[in-house]
Design brief:
Layout lengths: L8 H11 L7 E2 L15 E5 L5 E5 L5 E2 L4 H13 L1 H4 L30 H10 L6 H14 L8 H10 L1 H12 L8 H10 L2 E2 L1 H12 L14 H14 L5 H7 L4 E3 L4 E6 L3 E6 L2 E2 L6 H14 L5
Antiparallel strand pairs: 1-9, 2-3, 2-8, 4-5, 6-7, 7-8
Helix pairs in contact: 1-12, 2-4, 2-5, 2-10, 4-7, 4-8, 5-8, 6-8
Bound molecules: glutamine.
Length: 308
């Protein structure tokens, strides 16, 4: 295998070209109507190396919504504010063997399985303090900080689309309210829909991957939020539940903490080393980017990046 210091834009573009065809085999998410409008052929691949240097290839300027990748940022904000024990007092650390929108275990133990599936993520966002959209603003500000990109904002049209069709998520929200986990009003659910609608690029995702790979130190070395413990928590959640019910097989094949979103992005942390960001909106049956997965897999094989 090759040394990671030899990674270049050329490496990335040859992996991208090899896997471009997968974008015709997956399917763009359309259960959120606005997402159905995405260009299935768009594809991008980014790496932030050990020294914080950025390598980009493909549709590098193409923006897409974070969707479930926002869940790791919300978890970080909630844990920094309330402490891990409090955040997990009524939520599990279970790995995922259920689809991301499954109701487990709200009807049995009453507790969401983990903060990466929708139920636990909606709950986690509801734990962040502040009236109205304050909790969302905290998540947005953290994304802007980690990526050092103040231009990042959310897509109003995707947000409206999710809000008007997200009845399953609304059902989970009210079931958790019934169970006594959630005390606020629907503003808290709106904050979840808004965080899912944050728009960014593959490069921004690679910077997020880098951040958690480096104990919450930013790619430019800024260590304002440095915490080995927070990074360990986030990476362990990414590893065990970040790719939903595919997480187990994914950890065998790729072996890296990763978080996907139905917008087609995946953020990957190579602990102590680098961050990877991929984008291709055609998804597999689990809701993970198909070409994105194959690009990550090839990079991992070429440079022997699995943590195992
Ligand atoms: N906003 C999406 C939803 O709640 C996020 C799901 C995902 O990216 N897997 O359904």
């Amino acid at each position: 295998t090759a040394d990671i210091s030899t990674i270049s834009e050329k490496t990335l573009s040859s992996i991208l070209e090899k896997n471009r065809t997968y974008s015709t085999q997956g399917k763009v998410a359309d259960y959120i109507p606005e997402l159905g409008k995405m260009d299935a052929k768009a594809i991008a691949f980014s790496v932030v190396d050990q020294n914080g240097k950025v390598f980009n290839t493909g549709d590098v300027h193409k923006k897409f919504t974070m969707q479930s990748i926002s869940k790791i940022i919300a978890l970080m904000v909630a844990v920094r504010e309330r402490g891990e024990a409090d955040v997990f007092a009524k939520m599990g650390y279970f790995g995922s063997e259920k689809p991301f929108n499954h109701f487990s275990n709200l009807e049995t133990t009453g507790k969401p399985l983990n903060p990466m599936m929708n139920a636990g993520a909606i709950y986690t966002t509801s734990l962040i303090s502040g009236a109205g959209e304050q909790a969302f603003i905290k998540v947005l500000d953290m994304v802007r900080y980690i990526t050092k990109n103040q231009n990042i904002d959310y897509s109003k049209s995707v947000y409206e689309s999710e809000k008007s069709t997200g009845h399953r998520n609304r059902g989970m929200f009210y079931l958790m309210k019934n169970n006594g986990l959630i005390s606020g009003n629907e503003d808290q659910l709106d904050n979840y829909f808004k965080q899912c609608s944050i728009e960014l690029t593959a490069e921004d995702l690679a910077k997020i991957g880098y951040f958690f790979a480096h104990q919450c130190v930013r790619f430019d070395g800024d260590s304002k939020y440095k915490s080995a413990e927070v990074a360990k928590l986030i990476e362990s959640q990414m590893l065990t539940a970040g790719m939903y019910e595919f997480s187990g097989e994914y950890s065998r094949m790729v072996g890296l903490p990763s978080k996907s979103g139905v917008g087609g992005g995946i953020a990957v942390s190579v602990p102590g080393k680098m961050g990877i960001g991929v984008f291709s909106p055609a998804l597999d049956q689990h809701g993970n980017s198909l070409a994105g997965y194959h690009m990550i897999l090839d990079l991992v094989k070429q440079y022997n990046l699995s943590i195992f």
